[in-house]
């Protein structure tokens, strides 16, 4: 093992950037392709979204906001969106962005041969259909959908769709096959050596959106670094060694390494919450767990501060709402959730008629998720108020299968990021008879969620979100505990870096002299 680490360390040293304004970033996996939204995963999306942009992108509140569009107008009937393009935006090859590029990109995405991740989101298969896309002039694009849908812009902005990136037609070869992304993003595609590294270089002709401040994928996005090299380093111990030695400038790290690296005078450690939600699922159709007072007792027995600390130490904070803490919909109502009260938990257990029936919590021991540590602390707290709780450890594939079949009493589980509240609630809500994986089967709540999908008025949407939050807290179909954290260590000479939603945004980042 020592020889292997030493060998990997030597590679890191050799890979250290020589240029003053270049940095080396460690990533745990290679990209799957350089074709935005095609053959992708989260790591691939992270890289692509530094190179390309869409008409709209998410701001830090999780709201789809104009990006390549200067403004977006919606017709009175909620079916026609008119995008006015920002003037003077250029592609990496120097060509100026026009509405013709939007039409070319859209036509390519909707061609089944492209195999774009999100074609089915817009062709009617998922309930939303774009009926026409036209370009009245060089700076105007009009998109007509079949019926009002409050999530249309949100779907365009989705990161797994690569922000529905607008590409130049020279991104493909003469025969129509893919070549490389020629986008409008702050960085240009550089070099890719599969299994070893991939790079991007500053686009000197980049025109940053106005605003002056970084804001999710919109706002100021200046490429202030000459080059960024993403080095594939799978072993966390090698990552830590590279950070300490200075061979690496920046990398995500394990929560367990944060305290040690914080003490290093040459390193900074930053932790930012993301939209991942760590939860305790409850099967309400179980003979024992179907008792609402019992579920309320379980919620009252959990000290969320202690549960968060079991995995994130002092870096994380509880959040018992289905709405993530950084959302623009996370208001005063969402801040009020489950409260730790052991005495109340014991009273509720008596009112529930609980007689010591065994309750099994399923968990897995993957190191990157808090499933098992959270389950251990929860078990201790439940036992302290009189609940006969046990933990069953499964491999992740088996636990996921049990989740999909609804075959459990409780699970220590995680839901992936969802920005818009409608999608966040839909992720776990619905009829169990049709979809056993659904956790909250409440027809009245589903009507409110359906209304969220078609309501565009911001104030009305907030009322619906507040109502749904209160219902989840009262009914306890599951217990939300805390949001995920992006924990990144970087050399102190790297300035201006801030992770967001598990993405390593390298714009607005500089190196100290």
From TrEMBL:
Gene3D superfamilies: Dipeptide-binding Protein, Domain 1, Dipeptide-binding Protein, Domain 3, Periplasmic binding protein-like II. Residues 1-20 form the signal peptide. Residues 65-430 form the Solute-binding protein family domain. Keywords: Signal. The keyword Transcription regulation does not apply. InterPro entries: Peptide/Ni-bd (IPR030678), SBP_5 (IPR039424), SBP_5_dom (IPR000914). It is found in: Periplasm. PANTHER family: D,D-DIPEPTIDE-BINDING PERIPLASMIC PROTEIN DDPA-RELATED, PERIPLASMIC BINDING COMPONENT OF ABC TRANSPORTER. Belongs to the bacterial solute-binding protein 5 family. This is ABC transporter substrate-binding protein. It comes from Bosea vestrisii.
């Amino acid at each position: 093992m020592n020889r292997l680490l030493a060998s990997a360390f030597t590679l890191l040293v050799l890979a250290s950037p020589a240029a003053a304004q270049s940095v080396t970033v460690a990533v745990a996996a290679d990209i799957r392709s350089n074709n935005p939204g095609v053959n992708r995963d989260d790591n691939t999306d992270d890289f692509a979204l530094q190179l390309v942009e869409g008409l709209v992108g998410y701001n830090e509140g999780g709201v789809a906001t104009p990006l390549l569009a200067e403004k977006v107008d919606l017709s009175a009937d909620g079916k026609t969106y008119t995008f006015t393009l920002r003037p003077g935006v250029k592609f990496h090859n120097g060509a100026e962005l026009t509405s013709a590029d939007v039409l070319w990109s859209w036509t390519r995405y909707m061609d089944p041969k492209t195999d774009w991740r999100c074609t089915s989101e817009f062709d009617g298969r998922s309930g939303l259909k774009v009926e026409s896309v036209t370009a009245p002039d060089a700076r105007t694009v009009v998109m007509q959908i079949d019926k009002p849908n409050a999530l249309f812009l949100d779907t365009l902005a989705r990161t797994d769709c690569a922000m529905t990136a607008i590409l130049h037609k020279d991104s493909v070869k003469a025969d129509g096959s893919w070549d490389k992304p020629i986008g409008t993003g702050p960085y240009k595609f550089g070099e890719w050596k599969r299994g070893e590294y991939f790079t991007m270089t500053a686009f000197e002709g980049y025109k940053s959106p106005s605003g002056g401040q970084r804001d999710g994928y919109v706002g100021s996005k200046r490429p202030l670094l000459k080059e960024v090299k993403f080095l594939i380093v799978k072993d966390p111990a090698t990552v830590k060694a590279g950070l300490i030695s200075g061979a690496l400038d920046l990398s995500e790290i394990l929560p367990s390494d944060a305290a040690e690296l914080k003490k290093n005078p040459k390193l900074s450690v930053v932790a930012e919450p993301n939209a991942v939600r760590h939860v305790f699922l409850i099967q309400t159709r179980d003979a024992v767990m179907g008792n609402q007072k019992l579920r309320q007792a379980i919620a009252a027995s959990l000290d969320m501060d202690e549960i968060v600390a079991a995995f994130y130490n002092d870096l994380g904070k509880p959040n018992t709402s289905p709405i993530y803490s950084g959302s623009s919909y996370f208001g005063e109502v969402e801040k009020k959730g489950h409260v730790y009260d052991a005495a109340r938990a014991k009273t509720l257990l008596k009112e529930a008629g609980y007689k010591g029936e065994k309750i099994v919590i399923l968990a897995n021991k993957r190191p990157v998720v808090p499933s098992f540590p959270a389950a251990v602390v929860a078990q201790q707290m439940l036992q302290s108020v009189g609940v006969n709780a046990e933990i069953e450890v499964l491999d992740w594939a088996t636990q996921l299968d049990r989740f999909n079949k609804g075959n459990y009493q409780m699970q220590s589980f995680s839901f992936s990021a969802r920005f818009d509240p409608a999608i966040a609630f839909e992720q776990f809500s619905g009829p169990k008879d049709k979809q056993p994986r659904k956790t909250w089967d409440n027809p009245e709540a589903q009507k409110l969620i359906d209304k969220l999908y078609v309501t565009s008025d911001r104030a009305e949407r907030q009322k619906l979100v507040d109502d749904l939050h209160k219902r989840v807290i009262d009914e306890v179909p599951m217990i939300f505990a805390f949001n995920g954290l992006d924990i990144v260590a970087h050399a102190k000479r790297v300035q201006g870096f801030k992770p967001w939603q598990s993405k390593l945004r390298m714009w607005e980042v500089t190196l100290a002299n």
